[in-house]
Design a protein that fits this description.
The complex is a heterodimer of chains A (397) and B (538).
Chain A lengths: L15 H7 L4 E5 L2 E6 L3 H10 L1 E5 L4 E6 L3 H8 L12 E7 L5 E11 L2 E6 L4 H6 L7 E4 L5 E6 L3 H7 L13 E6 L2 E6 L8 E6 L4 H12 L4 E3 L2 H11 L42 H10 L3 E8 L9 E3 L9 E9 L4 E9 L8 E10 L2 E12 L18
Parallel strand pairs in A: 3-13
Antiparallel strand pairs in A: 1-2, 3-9, 4-7, 4-8, 5-6, 6-7, 9-12, 10-11, 11-12, 14-17, 14-19, 15-16, 15-18, 16-17, 18-19
Helix pairs in contact in A: 2-7, 5-6
Chain B lengths: L1 E8 L3 H12 L4 E4 L12 E4 L2 E3 L11 H6 L9 E4 L2 E4 L5 E4 L3 H9 L3 H22 L14 H15 L3 H12 L2 H6 L5 H8 L15 H9 L2 E2 L2 E2 L2 E4 L4 H13 L3 E3 L4 E7 L2 E7 L4 E9 L3 H7 L8 H9 L6 E8 L18 E3 L4 H12 L8 E5 L14 E8 L12 H16 L5 H4 E7 L1 H8 L35 E3 L13 H13 L14
Parallel strand pairs in B: 1-2, 1-14, 2-11, 6-16, 14-20
Antiparallel strand pairs in B: 3-4, 5-10, 6-7, 8-9, 12-13, 13-14, 15-18, 15-19, 17-18
Helix pairs in contact in B: 1-10, 1-17, 3-4
Classes of the chains: A alpha+beta (397), B alpha/beta (538).
Chain lengths: 397, 538
Amino acid sequence: MSKTEVQLDRRKSPFYPRQAELDRLNQWHEWKGYRSADGFWEMDLEYFAQRNSAGVFDLTPMTKYRITGPDALDYLNRLVTRDMTKIKPGRVAYAVWCDDEGQVIDDGTIFHLNEGEYRLCSQERHMSWLQAAAIGMDVRIIDETEDICGLAVQGPTSFSILKNMGLHGVETLKPFDLMALNFHGAELMISRTGFTGDLGYELWISPDSALHLWDTLFEAGKLHHIRAIGTHALELARIEAGFIAAYIDFLPANVTVRSGRSRSPLELGLGWLVDFEKPNFNGRRALIEEKKRGSTWRLVKLDIEGNKEAHHSYIYDNKKGGENIGFITSAAWSPVCKQNIALGTVRTPHGKVGDKLYVEIYYQLEMHWSRVMAQATVVSKPFWDPPRKRVTPPASN
Amino acid sequence: MKTYDAIVIGAGHNGLTNAAYLAKSGLNVVCIEKNDYIGGATVSRNLYKDWFYSNCSYVVSLLRPEIYRDLELARHGLQVTPYGGGTVFMENGDYLGSYPDPEVHWREYARFSRADADAYERYSADTMRQCRFIREFLLRTPPDPASFKPRDLRELAYLGAKFFDMGEQRMYDTIRFWTMSVAEYLDEYFETDVIKCALSGSGIIGTALGIHSPGTAYVLLHHYMGEVDGNMGAWGFARGGTGAVAQALAKSFRSYGGELRTEAGVEQILVKNGKVQGVALSSGEEINAKVVVSNMDVKNTFLRCMDKNDLTEEFYNRVKNFKIRGSSGKVNIALGGMPTFPALPKDSPLLDGDMHFIDSMERMERAYDDWKEGTWSKDPYVDMTIPTVSDPTMAPPGKHFVSCFVQYCPAQIEGRDWTEEERQQFGQTVIDQIGEYSPDFKSLIEHVEIRTPAVIEDEIGITEGNIFHGELTMDQLLFNRPIPGYAQYRGPVGGLYMCGSSTHPGGGIMAAPGCNAAREILFDLRRPDITPVNFGDD
């Protein structure tokens, strides 16, 4: 009898052969079992490619589920907190889903591909939860993570590049629109979405056509300064856009051990994604209760004085310190905003927009450690929010 | 006749910065500019088809991050992107690269000398130490050593404390550093000629001195201090060209209610009873204000725009003798494609950096000899950048804008004005030099703009087109800049201020003079100080 063994080493994305050619740094990490690049050639410049021209990021390891069947809409509407009946075919919705206690399990994007046909895309794996939530519904849920690979093309020249590829109709895509077209015999799905808070698109295709897509994309982008980028560059753009990440800014409720360590959507600044008017959904009762009683935590976007990055810092409501009111979850010096920025979680009632808080920052210079209490202002808008991300058709550069 | 709280003359980056802070403080401010475009030398202009030329300044490195942030320049559309590395092309067909990655940089230097590769770390640390000392004072008003005012005493004590903080040996080093030549300084670290040559260029840029002239080591700092994203020493391109800096500053200024008027050149700064009254424009129109701030260089401000009777003899003479010598020119080129450089490997990251075509200390010094003899360098020091390698906005896709900063280039040829033919020859000298290392360069040229100091002076107004509004030598720095006793941004008559690069801490797209001058004006008007504090480096 032949013995079977699962793959023990890290998976390679279908785009890997091209990435390996471009790689000058030899710095890789693991992302959901895949070999994923920290960066390829110069991480700072990769970051700037997203803001100045176009950066291409391999999204393949994202978890993807195809959700179909007569009850697909009702199913999703019960799964997530926002009203999915408003998301027409050809649209993409950012959404969160909760457990019965109203605690966030994950966030993700739901692509309404065709009438009654959806793709749910998330950072984490959820088949068990998705199946459990399907009880009594006529839906089919297929994990298609390995059947679809994806590239995010983000930055001010991304539109020119896609146009240059001959992708007709891309000029009509508004933010959160999607379209499918025939790409040399394969179905290519394009959505005007991304994780950078800038003009950008995501391209989805079957692995057989991956290299062809990559080559065509890079050929079309040659004169538009297209660059492959790694996770380091994206992570910085993500914080500038004010987007939260699982295991960084929140912990999936289903894997949280200690009580009080998970968060509700209301506590993550995602109240706008919770629709109490629609029929019952997972976590509704708990969230109504929380709304009445008030949340314990609040996610804050902080504009911090000075230029010392506030990694792992405690947050206080006064300069003297005393008892902390929360802590920083993501921090960065934003090269494009020239701003010291952070996301954090604080106890209510602290953290209202405009509040002046203090962040205790420890930093090391030439071996010695120093500490500063920096004033931090709670802001409401994303740190990076260029008008170009909303314009349709987008500008060429 | 219109009346304002303050008039700022000149919409260069310092004028706009100053105006923005005054307007932010609540004053009613007008910024007037003689040209029909703003920015002064911080400008990018559409001079040929779809190309945008940063036809004066071409890189951003010194722009204070404190001001960038405080005036919300990012929100107003400014994006500065770092660029990596640089190349010196050598006559023997080889090249010396400079890479942002320290390990790669070490390997490259080691190709020439292991000792030099190792020395680079010590060189960087020593230079950084000097940078740190100076950097501390960029956003501070220089103290007047002859004054007993508490503010001056406090600032002097601060300066002294920072100086003594370096330790005995380092204090000696510092004094030596400020007075020695860049060549001598580099000799203390390196043995390879081309490595010294590559590093020496920063010591003479914008300065009518040679690499062996005393005082040039300090100039190095102005090119080392650059601060893109807190990485000291890193340089960057403004997306859309350096003009984007002025555009963002102008938007910021307007957002505080400021008024910007172009095609409003100043004929005369009006003074009555030792107090400024306003300005008379070339059109004859007069504008009134109790505060007039000049972003022009000191010679333009006092020698051209003021009645000599309003100035003392000594002041007048000091201004006359202030050194603003034309030492560099610009050749700006539109290319129909990316030129090739056979010396470099295919797809080398060095193509993203600056390029130089002079490879020895002797050639550097010879270039200066030509200037002393009253002509442009026949084998010049060219600092060439191709911003369109990363900037998609300055030329059509696949086409390129090439900026060549060229040193040396005198204001006059042997004491007389340039002829048109000589100007063309100057441009050709540069193109020929590049052509030696890039065989297809010439055939790709679609358009060339050749700017001698005289051309820049005529258009922008800067005396002799000097990029720093006056040389950065010790006699013209700190409390001596521009003139002893007048280093605190105040002019010799009441209500008159200076905010241009002739003042501390000098030129480059730094915006510190404009900001510092605003601090002094607000102080005099008894308004709260809203100018930003140095981020600090500790």
